[in-house]
Amino acid sequence: MHTPQNMSPATVVFLLALFMGIQPVTTDLYLPALPALAHNLQANMAQAQYTLSALLLAFGASQLVWGPLSDRIGRKPILIAGLTAYVLASLGSAFAGTITSLIYWRIVQGLAMGAVVMCGRALVRDLYEPVDGAKVMSKGLSGLGVIACLSAPIGGWLVSLWNTTAALMALAVFGAVTLWMVLVHFRESLAHKNPNALRVNTLLRTWLAILTNPVFLTYNALSFASYGILFTFLATSSFVFIKGFGMSSTAYGLLMLGMSAHYIGGTFLCRRLLVRVGITQTLAIAGGISLAGGLAMAVLAWLGVQSPWAIALPFYLIAIGHGIHQPCGQSGAVGPFPHAAGAASAMNGFLMMVVAFVTGAWLSTNPSLHSHGDAQPMVTSVVFWSICVALVAWTAVQKYGKH
């Protein structure tokens, strides 16, 4: 374990929570504003949803650049550049006058967000070995869960009390606070910079090594399948609960708070299980939890139960599993590459966002979801990804997860 001078373990966890928490702030906080944004900017629901999927595609792709660049020049310069761009893009989003300009600003926001989240994942590998890294990552993701708990209710409250501009301005405030924390408290975590990290031949060899490593492929599959479930919920839930079930933006925010609370519970359960039964058995248990939630949602839909709780309660169970899969998956994917943590983190993040973009593209082809909040597309996608999560956890993780 390498600990930078003057940066305590508590500081590392707090900063990690901010770095990883920028993602739910950027997505969850504005979800209650999504239907109102579409109305105010005279856009259809598919266009409004593209403000989310375009952001996430830019977020994923940008990490392929940020990762090797951070291996070359260090994490702190990348964090400062990314957070500065994030604040500016958030201000642009808040005052966008058309749906097209909002999409453009959200793309810039996604590019900037990629720098921050990538550095968070790489930071853990810089400082800790894989098993300890999973425990530290789970603590950071507990902090992410707290931020996510607050994001949707605050977004709903801001929309109800003021307008959608206020909800988008809150992103600029979060970015500015995080930037200040980096400038004051962050100490460079990369002990040895790689002078060859940006050379084309080095990049190609590094990416080939990453993409052919069975441990990376296993944990990456776990993390992106788990994220496929989460993205499905993020992309569809505001339409299903607000348009389909007639919830207010405030009530929807509180429902999302419940989801985040269960996710936090999952991260605490993750740490306890890692100590008691080890990583492979922990993920096998989590795979069962995720599958149980997905199947419960499917059965209730098949029985024709039309209630917000027929969707929310099974997803709360899935959120517990997600709180286990993500810290183990993200730290496990980067674990085999101590000297290329930025590149491995970037590839993991990129592949997760490709999955999100493809899922979002499929969901956008369902007019019933956008027109009257039909829940069936959500249920179908959640069941598919929950089956994938369980299969990876019960097969590949059991073979490669200990390496």
Please explain how this structure is put together:
The protein has 403 residues and is an all-alpha fold. The protein is built from 16 helices and no strands. The protein has helices at residues 9-28, 34-40, 45-73, 75-94, 99-127, 130-161, 164-185, 200-211, 214-244, 249-277, 279-302, 308-334, 341-363, 367-372, 376-394, 396-400. Helix 6 (130-161) packs antiparallel against helix 7 and helix 6 runs antiparallel to helix 10. The longest helix is centred in the middle third of the chain and has 32 residues, at 130-161. The mean pLDDT is 86.
Helices and strands in order, then pairings?
Elements: H1 9-28, H2 34-40, H3 45-73, H4 75-94, H5 99-127, H6 130-161, H7 164-185, H8 200-211, H9 214-244, H10 249-277, H11 279-302, H12 308-334, H13 341-363, H14 367-372, H15 376-394, H16 396-400
